[in-house]
């Protein structure tokens, strides 16, 4: 079950809106941005998640963002369950889509290493063992989806969804904008939109009526401020502790 706690950190970010081409200069994020979250499982401090827009690199003839996510278990949690997860996405900031995704996971005795290559023109994903065809347009891995959604206009009554594609899943999931709330977290007090992805899972961590809620700041940055997942094995709560905006 503890492995599921940290796997959920990535799943908590699987929301995005279906988007058209974007202007990189108009995006609400850029190189140098860093978001730091504390993650709790029930009432226990489980770890820290850090997401960064590291730099612009050239890949497949395009200037793309190198996005990274690092998840580390807290000192107390590590005493009985050690976690060190690293994820990297090469994200096209014009089409708002993944071009390459890499992950390296250490979760107690479980380890996983994977590299995925996305061909958005051919709608395929290639891994070491398979080629998936027919992926959704502008398909995003879990990390890239985080930045995909922030490039869109979130407002009450908006029609939102996210195009999620990786080695095992390929779907568009609708998102409901539940309303507007003001919340206070360690990073400050924010006016937010409360979102609920309509997961409707028959299997996985959100089966048995599990729910996921995301509070996104109602400003030009559209920062995910708080994320709460109610799963079949317990409640996960990720809270923004501090952040650095783009250079």
SSE topology:
Layout: H1 2-11, E1 34-41, E2 44-59, E3 62-73, H2 75-78, E4 83-92, E5 97-107, E6 110-119, E7 124-126, E8 131-133, H3 142-150, E9 160-165, E10 170-185, E11 188-197, E12 211-217, E13 224-231, E14 234-244
Antiparallel strand pairs: 1-2, 1-14, 2-3, 3-4, 4-5, 5-6, 6-7, 7-8, 9-10, 10-11, 11-12, 12-13, 13-14
What does this structure look like?
- The longest helix has 10 residues.
- The termini are far apart.
- The N terminus is likely disordered.
- The chain has a 14-stranded antiparallel β-sheet with strand order 8-7-6-5-4-3-2-1-14-13-12-11-10-9.
- Helices cover 9% and strands 53% of the residues.
- By secondary structure, the protein is mainly beta.
- It has one domain: YmcC-like fold (Beta Barrel), CATH 2.40.360.
- The chain is built from three helices and 14 strands.
What is the compact description of this entry?
This protein is mainly beta. The protein is built from three helices and 14 strands. The relative contact order is 0.20.
Features:
single chain, about 250 residues, mainly beta, 14-stranded antiparallel β-sheet, 3 helices, about 10% helix, about 55% strand
Which descriptor suits the 3D outline?
A: globular
Strand/helix succession: HEEEHEEEEEHEEEEEE
| End-to-end Cα distance | 39 Å
Percent of residues in helices: under 10%
Largest β-sheet summary: 14 strands, antiparallel
Low-confidence stretches: 2-20, 202-208
Output the CATH class name. Mainly Beta
Which whole number gives the mean pLDDT? Answer: 86
CATH architectural type:
Beta Barrel
